[in-house]
Design a protein that fits this description.
2 domains; Aspartate Aminotransferase, domain 1; 4-stranded antiparallel β-sheet; alpha/beta; 42% helix; binds ligand TLP
Length: 341
C-alpha cells in the first residue's frame, strides 16, 4: 500500500521503538513519569511557553485550548474550514459551550481585517467573543502557512481588545520548515498552542498543548476530565521526544515530495491542485467528470490510498513513510485511471 491518506499513518522508527523499550516511567497522573516530564519541559522550551502538557491527541489539545480561553455562552472566531469545526465532533459546543463564528477565506488564512468587525463585547443581544482560533498549517486550505505578519497582526489586534488566541499548530513544524521561522517565533504571541507529535514528526501518538503555567495547571485537570490521564505514558513520551528531536529535519523532504505530486497532478487533464507550501496537496478533480470517491476506490484497488474530501476535492499527504518513487507510482496509477475514463 502507498498510503497518502495522511501523515497520521507514519509508523514509529526503530529509534522510537528502542526508546519506548528503554523508557523510565512512573504514574503521570501524580506527575511522576520522568519521561513525560522531560517531554513536557522540552516542548515548553521549543515553543517558549511557561509550561506544556502531553495529551493523547490533537483533538484533545484543541478541546482543552478552547476551554481554557473561553466561558460558556461565548463565541470563537475561526476560518470556516478549520479542524475544530469540520473534524472535532463539535467539541467546542459539547465541552466548552461556545459557538464558532466562521469566516469564509480562500485558503484558510484569516486576516485581522476580517476578524476585527466580528469581535463583540458583552451585551444583552449577542454572544461575546471569547477567543480566536487559527490553524497553522491549514489542513483543508491545502497545508497553507500563516504568514508571520498575519499571525502577529491578529494577536496584537486581539490582545488589544482583550481577546486571547489559540493556535491549532497540529503541523506547526511543517510551517516552520516551510517559512524558515522557528516554532518559537511562530508561537510567540499566541496564548495557547497545540501541536501533534504523531503527524509528520512520526510519533505513534500524542500531542502537546502549551501556554502559561496557570493555563497548563488547569489543562491538567481538563485532560483528566476528558479521560486523558495516561499513567505510565513515558513509553509514549519517549517516542515523542525522538519525534521532536529528529522529526523536523525530515519535513523538507516531505514538502519536496508534495511539490512533486502537485506538479504531476497539474499535468493531468481536469485536475487542479491548490498551491503547495508544505506536505498537503488538496486537488480539485471536478473537471475530470469523475467523483472523488470513485477515483479513490479505483486507486485503492491498485494499492494507492488517497482521500476523497468532498464532491470535488481529494487530498494527498506526504510523510516519512512514503518515498519519491512511491509518489511517482501513485501519480502513474492516478494518470492511468483518469485516462480510462
Ligand atoms: N487531522 C486528520 C484528520 O482528522 C482530518 C488528518 O488526517 O489530517 N488539527 C489539525 C489541523 C489536524 O489536521 C488534525 C488531524 C487534528 C487537529 C487532530 O489531531 P488528532 O487526530 O490527533 O486528534
Amino acid at each position: 500500500m502507498i498510503d497518502l491518506r495522511s501523515d497520521t499513518v507514519t509508523k514509529p522508527t526503530l529509534a522510537m521503538r528502542q526508546a519506548m523499550f528503554d523508557a523510565e516511567v512512573g504514574d503521570d497522573v501524580y506527575g511522576e513519569d520522568p519521561t513525560v516530564n522531560r517531554l513536557e519541559a522540552r516542548a515548553a522550551e521549543i515553543v517558549d511557553k511557561e509550561a506544556a502538557l502531553f495529551v493523547p491527541s490533537g483533538t484533545m489539545g484543541n478541546t482543552i485550548g478552547i476551554k481554557l480561553l473561553t466561558e460558556h455562552g461565548q463565541e470563537v472566531i475561526a476560518d470556516s474550514r478549520v479542524h475544530i469545526v469540520d473534524w472535532e465532533l463539535a467539541m467546542t459546543a459539547w465541552f466548552s459551550g461556545v459557538q464558532v463564528r466562521t469566516v469564509e477565506t480562500t485558503d484558510g488564512i484569516l486576516k485581522w481585517e476580517q476578524i476585527r468587525g466580528l469581535i463583540k463585547p458583552v451585551s444583552f443581544n449577542a454572544a461575546p467573543t471569547g477567543a480566536i482560533a487559527i490553524e497553522n498549517t491549514h489542513n483543508l486550505g491545502g497545508g497553507r502557512v500563516y504568514p508571520q505578519a498575519v499571525i502577529d497582526e491578529i494577536c496584537d489586534g486581539a490582545h488589544e481588545r482583550g481577546v486571547p488566541v489559540h493556535m491549532d499548530g497540529a503541523r506547526v513544524f511543517n510551517a516552520a520548515a516551510a517559512s524558515g521561522n522557528t516554532v518559537k517565533r511562530i508561537a510567540e504571541k499566541v496564548d495557547t498552542i497545540t501541536f501533534c507529535l504523531s503527524k509528520g514528526l512520526g510519533a505513534p501518538m500524542g500531542s502537546i498543548i502549551a501556554g502559561s503555567r496557570k493555563h497548563m495547571d488547569r489543562a491538567r485537570l481538563l485532560r483528566k476530565r476528558l479521560g486523558g490521564g495516561m499513567r505510565q505514558a513515558g513509553v509514549l513520551a519517549a517516542a515523542g521526544l525522538i519525534a521532536l528531536e529528529q522529526g523536523p529535519a525530515e519535513l523538507p523532504r516531505d514538502h519536496e515530495n508534495a511539490r512533486f505530486i502537485a506538479t504531476e497532478l497539474a499535468q493531468m487533464e481536469g485536475v487542479t491542485p491548490f498551491p503547495v507550501e508544505t506536505n498537503i496537496v488538496v486537488f480539485d478533480v471536478s473537471a475530470t467528470g469523475r467523483a472523488p470517491r470513485d477515483i479513490a476506490a479505483s486507486l485503492r484497488e491498485r494499492g494507492v490510498v488517497i482521500s476523497a474530501f468532498s464532491d470535488r476535492l481529494m487530498r494527498a499527504v506526504t510523510h516519512r513513510d512514503v518515498t519519491r518513487e512511491q509518489c511517482a507510482t501513485a501519480m502513474g496509477e492516478l494518470r492511468d485511471i483518469l485516462r480510462r475514463n
